[in-house]
Amino acid sequence: MAILPQRAIPYLVLAGAFLYNLNIGIINSYGNLNIYLTSYLRHKGQNVTYRDVSFIYELTVIMLGLSMLIGNAVQKKLGERVTIMTCCFITFLSFYLSSLYAHSYFMLCVLMGGLYGLGYGISFTIPLSCTYKHFKKNRGLVSGIVISAISLSPFLYCPLQTLLINKNNVLPVESSVGSSGGPRERYFQDPYVLSRIPHVLFIQSIIFLIFGTCGGFFATMEVTGGDGEKMLSIGNFDIGNKNNKHVDTQDKGFVDVERNDEQVGITTDKNKGNPNEVANETDNLGSRLAKSFKKKKKKKNGGRDK
Q: How many Cβ atoms sit within 10 Å of the Cβ of residue 47?
């Protein structure tokens, strides 16, 4: 017995796709995190500025575009569910390791820039493609809902980052030397604020592991029959049609019609070896045609008598 009604599955897929994009879109919160990461790196002896740390965001975008090129091939080889779950683990791993190596600018570029961008790009099209299979007639609306989650992600992560790192609203301090002879920049020097930055990266990794994985799981749900047998490939499943049928049944019906229309004068390989069966089928066909002709003749004579 199915736990969930079939009609609820498309909406669970839509909710899962939205939840996944809401978490994977953490890239849009880099602007808020930049000032804290830069201050922490400088506190650990790294001679970096905001411009240097912003390269992590640029590297993520570059890696995102490159990995999207191989995303389709990976999805075909592993399947949508395995692919999106693997990307969830990659994203979790990138932020978890970033919390351990937050003191190294190079490692942040590799992990938050490269590894996160790789996982994001490979799975980028999966939430949309999964929802398209269930909502053929409302793809514009569905696309807006799923994609909007990426833009809404900063509304989730930016307040969370500020709350966990700087809940007392400590102000940054102006640096003594400006970068490249330019205007002086402000960085945080409060020990409590700086000590919270690796902790926030770890919390973000756990949040994504939980909600991102749940979203990816629901986004790749499939419609199954009462006996657990997979119905139409989800892309061909029509939610509004009450007379849903298996594709094989429809194809079989078309084949039967074609065979009935071409019965006269056609013999299969099996019947070629048995002439008696061919003769019997020919006699049966002749008798049916004769009966049909007699019925038509009687109707015609009856009409004349009247």
A: 9
